[in-house]
Amino acid sequence: MSEFLGFAWELLAKVVYNVVAVVSSILNLLVFGWVEYFNIFMTYFTTFDLVGKIGAVILFAMLIAVPVLIVAILIHHYRINRRLHRDDTSNKALYREIGRLNKQVLDLMDEKNKLLALKVNAMGGTKQIPYVGASALADDHLPTVGNVVGAAAGAAAGEGAAATAVMSGNASLALDGAGVKDAAAAMAKATVEAKTLAEEKEIAQANRFPKLSLVDLKYRDWESPVYDDAISLEDFVDSFRAFACSQMKLYYTPEIIRRFVAGMAASKLLILEGISGTGKTSLPYSFSRYLDNPATIVSVQPSFRDRTEVLGYFNEFSKRFNETEFLRAVYEAGLRQDPSMIVLDEMNLARVEYYFAEILSVLEMPSHDEWVLDLVPTQWAADPKALHDGKLTIPDSLWFIGTANNDDSTFTITDKVYDRAIPIELNERADAFECEPHERVHVTADHLQYLFQKAKVEYVIDEELLQKMHKLDQYLQTRFKLAFGNRIIKQMYDFIPVYVACGGTELGGMDYIIARKVLKKFESMNVSFVRDEMKGLIEYIEKTFGEGGLPDSVMYLQRIQNFY
């Protein structure tokens, strides 16, 4: 035995000695041996030439980098291990919190479905609705909203009388006085809600125009407000300006509002141009709020190429029409009596004559019966009620308002679009002012059209002014090959009387139309060839209409001269 102990002692002692020797060698290599390394370095360094010294320094630096790198790796691994341990602890706390929140959600679902079951049972349903609460984690089959709605609708439609009798009997046993009334009101409200949900579900499943059919559902029981049919155009302008100031903190000059209202009389398409931040979008939006019928704002995208971008299209695969907000707004406008507006925001980000061409052509039709858009080739039984043979009529109560910036990111609006529209420039913000609070007004589109027609009768354009306009037309045709055109003449006859009725002057209205509808065509010409002729045109305008008679037109021509 003593021999074995001697053997074990000698063997283990040798192992320990070798381990200590290895550790000692590593320490000498990385730590304690640097004194010797440095002494060797200094002994030979003084004897080297320049190249040798540089090599010695590089070699010694590499030797220093090895232990530094080892220490950095060890520290890095230590930090990673500590971070993982800390993250693991945090994750455990996070998982516990997620589990607690999930349990709360399931408890809330359980309470909600208990209330829903009570509501359906109160309507006469005999079939209990299974709860969806904590058991949702284990159940294979879950009740759907469709099942609940279907049961509610069936109970309401098929067993209405029996449910009423049962509810009345139960209520008489348990309640008296106000309690019976409350129970009856709750039952009626639950019945209406269930019926509405069932109708919406049926529309979504069986109708190729679900959005338009929901608009029908919205206006089925809609009651129109009391309309003010005594307001005049001048009061209309003043009250809108006061409403925008007091209710929306937006400020407009009377001139801008006069042009906007008169533009509505002359065309169904208005284009608001100008620098960014002058209120191009807020003007139609605030105007529609003033009429208590908020405008639908459609953001035009550079990808717009054809009519499907605004009107949508029929999907042959799903057998549904891909409806847009633009189409919904056009449809809804036909169900209302008050004026409606659709704002095409940044309308020249794409080519207007591409995506809006069909609507431009339809609005040119002389009879409103011809303002029809073809959506689908045939009529289906479940189609919305305002669609006839798959066609939608653009209502006379609808105006399209486009906003446009003139910069490198936009397309130039062509003459085809400008000729059909009334452009209004907003290049500066109006000064703020104080006014009394003013509420919204309710007017019908028919009354607004009546005011426009009344203005044309009461403010007939002066014959002498018309003669001057015809002389200017002949001058432009002779010198510049420009003509007013029948469309512009018609718009002038519609614009000027309403402009006067809103508080403007005949000459001011004609000046605006000439500058924005006729002289604007110079922008598409080579102005360098007619620059000298423009000076003569300015002199002719001041001679014919008097000095300062057409300030907008003269200023516009001077700006074109200086720009080109």
Structure, briefly:
This protein is 61% helix and 7% strand. It has 564 residues and is of the alpha/beta class.
Describe the fold and architecture.
It is a single chain. The protein contains 21 helices and 9 strands. The protein has 564 residues and is α/β, with parallel strands linked by helices. A 5-stranded parallel β-sheet has the order 2-5-8-1-9, sandwiched between helices. Strands 3-4 form a two-stranded antiparallel ribbon. A two-stranded antiparallel sheet has the order 6-7. The radius of gyration is 41 Å and the shape is elongated.
Key structural traits:
61% helix; two-stranded antiparallel sheet; 9 strands; 564 residues; alpha/beta
Amino-to-carboxy terminus distance: 118 Å
- Strand content of the residues, in percent? 5-15%
> Which radius of gyration do the C-alpha atoms yield?
41 Å
Uncertain regions spanning at least 5 consecutive residues: 124-177
Helix content: 55-70%
Q: What spatial form do the alpha-carbon principal axes imply?
A: elongated
Describe how the helices and strands are arranged:
Layout: H1 2-32, H2 34-45, H3 50-122, H4 145-158, H5 160-174, H6 178-206, H7 210-218, H8 233-248, H9 254-266, E1 269-273, H10 282-290, E2 296-299, H11 308-311, E3 313-315, E4 320-322, H12 325-333, E5 340-345, H13 352-355, H14 357-363, E6 372-374, E7 391-393, E8 398-404, H15 415-420, E9 422-425, H16 445-458, H17 463-480, H18 485-501, H19 506-518, H20 527-545, H21 551-563
Parallel strand pairs: 1-8, 1-9, 2-5, 5-8
Antiparallel strand pairs: 3-4, 6-7
